[in-house]
C-alpha cells in the first residue's frame, strides 16, 4: 500500500550517506524560513472568520463608541476631540493587536506544533520572526480598516499624507515591538488561557494611564507622572503630533528608541527562551 | 554502526529524575520499541534524541552525529511524530505537507509532488485539500506521520503513535508502521502498550523510572520469564485419576515448579520454552489419554513487565491492577489497557 514513502524516490533501498543532502543554513534561508512560517499564519487569516471579524469589527466599534460617547463631553484645548482621540485609539488598537502573538504561540505549544518546528532543520529564530511578521501584517489590515472608518467620520491627516503615513508606520512599529513582549509571555506561560489573560491584562492600565484618551494634565499629579513616563504616551503623542501637523519635539525619536529597545531586548529574550522550550 | 545510539543519558526536571542513565541503540532498518508506563522517561528520551532538550549528562548520536553538538545536522536526518498530532488545523493536509517540504528547502514544484505522493500513500487524497480541522483523529495521525516523512528521514521517531486512537485506527496505524518498516525505515517508537511493542518491534527495551530494566527481542523477553503454559481440558465425566495421569504424561516437557491448576475439568502446568502443541499431543497419545482440548500459551509481555518490576505496566480504567500471569487467558486482553475488540496479537510474529 505504502510505496517509497520513507526512502529514495527512485528505488526503495535505504538512503546512503552520499545521496543525503543537508539543507543549507544561510541568512537568505533564515529569511525564507521566516516567510514560510509567516505564510502559515497568513493563509489562515481569511479562513478564520471569528478572528477576522474581531480584528476588523473591534476597532470600528472602538472608533465609533469613543467618538460618539465621549466625543461630545471631553474638551481638549487646541484640538477637535476627533483629531485628539483617533491617534489614541489607533495606538491602543495596534498595541492590543500584539496580544495575538502570545496567544498564537501558546496554541502552537499546546498542540505540539512547536516540537515539530523545532525538530526541523530551520533557522531557530524563524518561528518567532515569522509569527511576529504575520501578526504585523494582520495589524496592518486592521489599521487600514480603522483608518477608513476614521476618515468616514471626519478624521483627517492634518499634517499631510507623508506625516500621516509616518505616524501610522510608527504605531505599527510600536505594535511590532510589543509582539516580542507577547512572544516571551506566550512561551513562558503554561496554557493558552494564561497567555490570553497574561498578555492582555497589563495592556489596559498601560493604555489608559496615558495620553491616549485624555490629556495627562487632567489626571491627579501622581498619576500624571506615571502617564507621562509611559512609553505608550510617548508613542501616542508622537503619532498625534504627526497626524495633526504639530511639532512632535523629540517624541518621534523617543518613540522610535523605545520601540527599537523593546524589540532588541525582548526578541533576544524570546529567541533564547524558544531554544529551551518544548511543547507541553 | 547503529543509526541511533544513546549512552548513559540522564535528565532531571527539578527534583524529578526523568532519566537515570539510559542506553539504547537502533540498528538500520529495524524498529526499537521503548516500552514503559507513563512517567518512565520515554518521551524525555525521544526529546533528547530529536534535539528538543539537552541531556544533563551522557551523549547521543544520530547517524554518528552528536545531538547536542550539531543539532541542525541531526534535524536534517530525523522525522518526529509526537504524542499529539502536530498538524496545523487551519491549513489543508496538502498545505501542511508543502509547508514542511519548503522548510526542507524543496522547490515549489518538488514540494507539491512530494505532498501528492504522501497524500496518496497515506490514504488522504480525498481529504487532502480540506482544512485539517474537520479530520478524524486517525486522519490527523496519518497526516502527522506523513509530515515526518516529507524529507525521507534516516530515522523516524514515533512517540506513542496510537495513544488516544480508537481500535480500528490503532490497527490501521500498526499496518501503516509495518509497511514503513518493510520499506526499511529505521524507527524508534515509544509505547505503553505491550501488544504494540510485541507486534511492531524487532527489539524492545523496557524502561521504568528512567532506566532500562530489560532488553531483547520480544521472543527473548518472553522466554526470559521461563516456561510456557499448557492447558489441557479434560472430557466431561473424566476418571478421578485422569488429572494426575495427564501431569505424569507431560513429564518430559514440564518445567520445574508446581502444577498450576488441576481438577476434574482442567489441568494447567508449566512447560519448557519451545514446547509445541504437537509435543503435548504426542505425550498424551503415548500415555493413551484422550482429552477435549490442548492449548499452549506463551507468556505475554504483560507477564514480563510484572515479573521484572513487580508492578503492572498500566492500570485499567477503573484503577484496578491488570490480570496477573497465572491462570490468565491469551491475547491482548484488558490487562494492556486496550479495548478488548483488538484481536489477540501475542505470539503472532512476522
**How many strand segments of chain B?**
14
Low-confidence stretches of chain B: 315-350
Low-confidence stretches of chain A: 1-18
Helix/strand class of chain B: alpha/beta
Strand content of chain B: 15-25%
Number of helices of chain B: 11
- The count of helical stretches of chain A stands at 12
Ends distance of chain A: 34 Å
Mean pLDDT of chain B: 82
How many strand elements of chain A? 0
What profile does the largest beta sheet of chain A have?
A: none
What's the quaternary structure here? heterodimer
The chain-level structural class of chain A is mainly alpha
Backbone CA Rg of chain B: 24 Å
The general outline of chain B is elongated
Biggest β-sheet: strands ordered side by side in the sheet of chain B: 6-7-8-3-9-10
Give an overview in words.
With 280 residues, chain A is mainly alpha-helical. Chain A has helices at residues 27-44, 49-70, 81-97, 99-110, 113-118, 126-152, 161-188, 192-200, 203-208, 221-229, 231-244, 251-275. The relative contact order of chain A is 0.14. Chain B is of the alpha/beta class. Chain B has helices at 42-49, 71-75, 93-103, 108-121, 137-148, 167-182, 194-200, 218-224, 242-249, 277-286, 301-309; strands spanning 4-13, 16-26, 31-35, 57-62, 65-66, 78-81, 155-159, 186-191, 203-208, 211-216, 228-233, 261-262, 266-271, 293-297. The chains are: A mainly alpha (280), B alpha/beta (350). At the A-B interface, helix 1 and helix 5 of A face helix 2, strand 6, helix 3, helix 4 and helix 6 of B.
